[in-house]
Write a structure and sequence with these properties.
3 domains, alpha/beta, binds S-adenosyl-L-homocysteine, Transcription Regulator spoIIAA, Rossmann fold, Archaeosine Trna-guanine Transglycosylase, Chain: A, domain 4, seven-stranded mixed β-sheet, 11 helices
């Protein structure tokens, strides 16, 4: 194993519990795609890490021990991770959740999600990808009952992003349960699957009273999962807005799967900023507005980033919110701290009176590294507006 010497700044970060190795903390490193033995400036061994460039970071700290990556090592990781999800496994009402979450389960660069008895591996860098045979063997030993597995490639350099891995091939679209509600998912079409599992608890709030008797506007709705949850929780009308043409069909399928009548549920294929204008012109008003944009988006006319532009969404939403309405302000941007997100929201509110009712972070199946705030990327405020 090659040695990598780190300065005292990096050494301290690692001692604090940070696992992600940040490119900015290292000078030129020639090593890539390999395990390294980290040493401090005085030559003392600090632990084992691996280097592999990915979308965020250049590698991951793994353990304070000297560690080779054997099948037994991964079995141990999966066994620990499984224990943490025991209550999900026992639930008959929720059949889709995360089984393994990167650094929250002590191995960054890998996630495994479960959709009934089908699992989805996501490889975030080529080092993990190159170890996939040993990882899959270890996984099968801990989860022998899983019927089939698919994979997503979340790094650059390969000529595919989604594939079937092992077991039985499953139908193109099938139904999972969350809190007793049906959602349609697909394992092998692009990087997305029809539902974002990290939003379990926000959907639960919508099911459990937050939207009862209310009208709801769902911005950046994708497959309208928030709208379905709201409708199942007694919302009288929902409107789901997304730019992608495909979103309408996928959204309707979610509603139909739950036996919901579509007459009071609307699906609009439109840019959200256009929709804000349209709604204002038509004098539409909503009791609850959900705003959950991608961290970054670019269309023909403009770019949008949560870190710079989120406030615009809030101020636009205020114009079409009923009195005593609520805004559910959500972001999954890991480059934005909770304080920075709140600042964006505050800027959007200006001097309009409002109070924060709740803050949702990642649910317990999305284990986080408590020593690194950026691993707890999800931030969802429910805000009451006077
Ligand atoms: N809130 C969703 C997930 C949103 S994913 C959920 O809980 O399932 C982001 C979505 O934003 C994508 O479906 C994308 O098509 C849409 N999108 C991106 N830019 C947009 C824009 N300017 N107007 C409307 N939709 C947009």
């Amino acid at each position: 194993m090659n040695k990598l010497y780190v300065d005292s700044f990096v050494e301290k970060k690692i001692k604090r519990g940070v696992q992600l190795l940040d490119e900015r903390d290292f000078g030129q490193i020639k090593l890539n795609n390999q395990l390294v033995a980290l040493h401090n400036q005085s030559g003392r061994f600090i632990g084992t890490a691996y280097l592999s460039k990915q979308n965020k970071g250049i590698g991951w700290f793994l353990t304070k021990e000297k560690q080779e990556l054997s099948q037994a090592y991964f079995e141990d990781l999966f066994r620990q991770a499984r224990l943490k999800r025991a209550h999900f496994e026992q639930s008959e009402l929720t059949t889709a959740y995360r089984l393994f979450n990167q650094e929250g389960d002590d191995f960054g660069g890998l996630t495994v999600d479960r959709y009934n008895d089908v699992v989805l591996f996501s490889w975030y860098n080529s080092f993990v990808y190159e170890h996939r045979q040993i990882i899959l063997q270890a996984f099968k030993a801990i989860y022998p009952d899983i019927r089939s597995a698919y994979e997503k490639i979340r790094f650059k350099g390969l000529d595919y992003e989604s594939a079937f891995l092992y077991g039985e091939e499953v139908p193109e679209v099938f139904t999972i349960l969350e809190n007793g509600i049906k959602y349609q998912v697909f394992m092998n079409d692009g990087l997305m699957t029809g539902i974002f599992l990290d939003q379990h608890e926000v959907r639960n709030n919508l099911v459990n009273g937050l939207s009862a008797g209310k009208t709801l506007l769902n911005m950046f709705s994708y497959t309208a999962a928030f709208s379905v949850a709201a409708a199942m929780g007694g919302a009288i009308e929902t409107t789901s807005v997304d730019l992608a043409k495909r979103s309408r069909v996928l959204s309707q399928a979610h509603f139909v799967a739950n036996g919901l009548d579509l007459t009071s549920h609307h699906f609009v294929v439109m840019d959200v900023f256009e929709y804000f204008k349209y709604a204002k012109r038509k004098k539409l008003k909503f009791d609850v507005i959900v705003i959950d944009p991608p961290s970054f988006a670019r269309n023909k006319k403009q770019t949008f980033s949560v870190s710079k532009d989120y406030y615009k969404l809030i101020s636009q939403a205020l114009d079409i919110l009923e009195d005593d309405g609520r805004i559910i302000a959500s972001t999954n941007a890991s480059n934005l701290s909770l304080a920075q997100f709140k600042k964006q929201i505050e800027r959007g509110f200006g001097d309009r009176k409002h109070s924060y009712e709740s803050l949702q972070r990642l649910p317990s199946d999305f284990t986080v590294n408590k020593s690194d705030e950026s691993s707890n990327y999800l931030k969802v405020f429910t805000i009451k507006v006077k």
